[in-house]
Amino acid sequence: MNQSYLTLPYQYIADSPTTKSYAKWQIFEEYLQNPRRAARLGVNEKLLFVKPHLKIPTDVAHSQQEADWPLYIDTRLPAFHFQNLSTSMTIEIRGEEKVLLIEKPLSNTYSAHLNIYLEGKASATLLLLSPEDSEGLSTLSLNIQTRKEAEAKISIILIDSPKSALALFKATRLEPNSTLKETHILVPGRTLHLESETFLDQENATYTSSYAVATPQNRSASIQTSAYIKAPRTAAEIRLAGISHNGELAHKGTIRIHKGSQEARGKLSSRLIPLTPQSKVYAAPTLEIESDDATEAQHSASQSPLDPAKLFYLQSRALTELEAKRLLLMAELNKVLPEDAKREPTVQKYLEILLASLEINIDK
Amino acid sequence: MSKTELLESLTLTDISLDSLKVRPKLYLRGRISRSLVEELSRAKKEPPWMLKLRLRSLELFEKLPTPNWLVGVEELDLEELTHYIQLGYERASSWDELPEDIRKVYERLGLPEIEKRALAGLSAQLESENIYLAFKKFLEEQGVILMDMSEAVAKYPDLIQKYFMRVFPPSDHKFAALHGALWSGGVFLYVPPNVRVEAPIEAFFFIASELESQMEHTIVVADEGSFVHFIEGCSAPLFKRYSFHNGMVEIYAHRNSHVKFTTVQNWSKNLVNFNNKRALVEEGAVVEWAEGSIGSKISYVYPSAILKGRNARVSIANITVAKGPVWKDGGAKVYHLAPNTQSEVISKSISSNGGVSVYRGLIKVARGAKNSTASVKCDSLIMDKESKAFTYPKNEVEEEEAYVVHEATTGRISEDILYYLETRGFKEQEARRLIVLGYVGDILGKLPFEYQMVFRKVLELEFEEIGGYA
Amino acid sequence: MENTGLKIEKLTVSVASRKVLKDVSLDVSKGEVVALIGPNGSGKTSLAFTVMGHPNYKVENGRILLHGEDITSLKPHERAYKGIFLVFQSPPDIGGLPVGMFLQEMTAKRGIEASINDINNALLEVGLSDHYLSRNLYEGFSGGEKKRLEFAQALLFKPQILILDELDSGLDIEGVRLLTGKTRELAGSGVGVLYISHNIAALRLLRPNRVVVMMNGGVVAVDGLEILDVIEEKGYQGLV
Questions:
Q1: What is the pTM of this model?
Q2: What ipTM was reported for this prediction?
Q3: Where are the alpha helices (DSSP H) in B351-427?
Q4: What is the 3-state secondary structure (H, E, C) of A320-357?
Q5: What is the pLDDT of residue C141?
Q6: A228, B197, B308, C9: which has the fewest Cβ within 10 Å?
Q7: Which residue, among A292, A299, A307, A311, would best test binding to B if mutated, counting the most B CBs under 10 Å from its CB?
Q8: B touches which chains (3+ CB pairs under 8 A)?
Q9: Gyration radius from chain C CA atoms
Q10: Cα B359 to Cα B346: distance, rounded to the nearest angstrom
Q11: Is B149 part of the contact surface with chain A (CB cutoff 8 Å)?
Q12: How far apart are CA A280 and CA B404, in angstroms?
């Protein structure tokens, strides 16, 4: 395997606090120093609530299509990923729903790339459900494009085992007059590093992205979500609700609105809830606005525990302290989801799993 | 092309958002010799510990990495820098030397001739000097120490040594080290326990002295239970010969004291302004920073506070105007290190005619800082297609019983409000001016009254000249 | 008969070391409607929160008995389970929690079987349509809507003791008539009601069995309806 990625840094070197990353590079380094392709992959059957249409890697000889990646690769982790690809596929979804299961390595590394093209009322659900004893590293890149006039949906569900790790790179582009609603339900393993870049450079595109994240003990997640608006009448909204129970959670969000984006709207919100004294939560929401063309550009971040007044109210309704906490946490997570996702039973089931992973069993 | 003209002609339209990630390192031309620093210290008759601090800072300056996040400044001529320190003569020496636009503003502001000359630094004597002397006597009777920093170093060396560059050590970053080596001028203010100085102490009194020097160092020490309000700067535009300003302000608010520190800055557009400001807030103490920044070409100012004792509080209010091809980089940094601490940051910026305003903030709540609350509101108003606003806050919370809230809105002048004002008979220009004043209104209220007047007038003048809004 | 109902015995309570209740005693028997009135800050809501077990309210002296059992050290949910229901003066917004789902959880925890029909009926009884079921709890609700939904919860909850903290404030006259009528009905079926209010007109509609007046954290008078006339004419000062 080509080792040239070792010459690249993990992050842009600059003493500017803007580029500081909260990612746990040292965990990835363990795998990158001694890279080996995973021999065995699997899935946690207990968490499979829907039947997948497609399992990746496919049984037919691991596909080797061209990995289409629009971004410049100049840092170590993506460079390693693209050099290590075992699978590279293109999936086109036209006006239907598809569930894709991406298996996780039990040990060593598995890297996959997917080009996903969504047309009409298309919906894709990606499931990454690690077997409980898996210790491998998955790296996954998604090149997503919504075709003109599409009304697309994507759900990404990650329930990782305590010892595994995931690096996920997402590049999304919306064509004119299309809408994309994304839902992410994420429970990281040892660590999750997610970089999502969305480009709205065509008129009339609308992008809504929701993240529900939980970091239990000894687990961490660094989530970078960016939306770049370069065309008129476009809108981007990124909402994240994260709960940390002795883990670490960092959300770096960027909304950038370039000149020429008349009537554009950009909104970013981050709600991080630390549940214990050992929990760490970091928020770095960024707004970069060029020119006065945009109609709305705002961001908000709040880090605070659950509201005691609300907890008391629920307890006065016969819920125990623990039940009240769970209900309130569920309410916070649901707040960031789009209306239709809230009603989907699969989404609700995975949210329950997410909540359970936090292991809030002991009343403080 | 002279240095000044070069700086003035710098445009920032070349700075695209994509190029922000990686920038060329700052190039330092020439060097500062050890003997220069020794000579400086000797001329000021400083005690040995101060010379040691200067030399140690010089070493650090040479060792510390050069920042590459400075925008618009590619080269710093160290020899030119030290030139003015040696001369000790930083202001214009004749009316004609003043740039045209500054002269015009003085005229429009309607300042009396003598004040104009004083502001321009041309006269060492002011009519108000008598008032200044009387006030100084009043303060002395209360035990308040207020004097030039150099004088204070000579007269109260032990007291100064306790505080000088303690909360902001030279090792912090390269410019702090540069400051430590070459600082000159500034004010030392000490307020004894339980003394409340109700009338604000204005640095305007020091206009004839060294407050305006290139690397002034100001220390405000408020002993237990005291209160003081210090104001530095001037709303009217000021012209300085030097092009790189690297000042430092340290505030030590002891238990239950209250310090208000107001800075209004309107320097001419040939200046790069670097200001290092930090406060150490002990138990029950309150520090209020208020900053109004109109001038300078490029500025980096982040008032900061370390909330060391329980119940310590800080409030930071900034108004920044980035008009024309200027880069205004500012913000606030607060470290919550004890329980029940509170911070509030309000930052409002206005960018127009290609100006760029940047907010960089950090709220850090350390483990154990239970029941702390932090709220940040940073808004940016962009007036036209050429201007930009960037917001980079960071909230790092390591304590679960803490409440940190941040909100930012970047936008343009509301069409609805414009229309409404026009239906009430205001012309478009007047309406815009009103909206801008309304936007900064609540922060403007934190500035002392006479500053508000001038600031408002200056803002009006600035925005009247926008004209031709396309 | 003596051991039924709510008995508050000589309660002295403080919040953050500030005394809010001083030696307060009050009884509410089964089927009784007791009105609790007093000027702002007299301690009425503090009493309600103390009975409900709010963690900020520390009982320094005295006790609370429910049907003869000392509940002073029980947690809020335990008191709720035993049948104490508090209609909050200002219930909190809980975005992300749909009303329907919340009502189902609540009744299940109380051990009551409530079908969707039961829940719908409770809403209709208080003048709310079933489209409130899909709304988030109290998000964007007007004052009147909040009071009605709180009362609907009380109906579903089947409490033993019902404490109403200013049910009538923010409610229109129709709503006041409707809900005071329903309160009377609940009392008629054996519920002990403690009705906290400022609204003399609503109290007259309610026709409580007894009126307790609090001032400055203590009980200053216990009387029949006539005391309302005195207060209407001379204000609370008229009682001193």
A1: 0.84
A2: 0.88
A3: 415-423
A4: CHHHHHHHHHHHHHHHHCCHHHHHCHHHHHHHHHHHHH
A5: 93
A6: C9
A7: A292
A8: A
A9: 17
A10: 11
A11: no
A12: 13
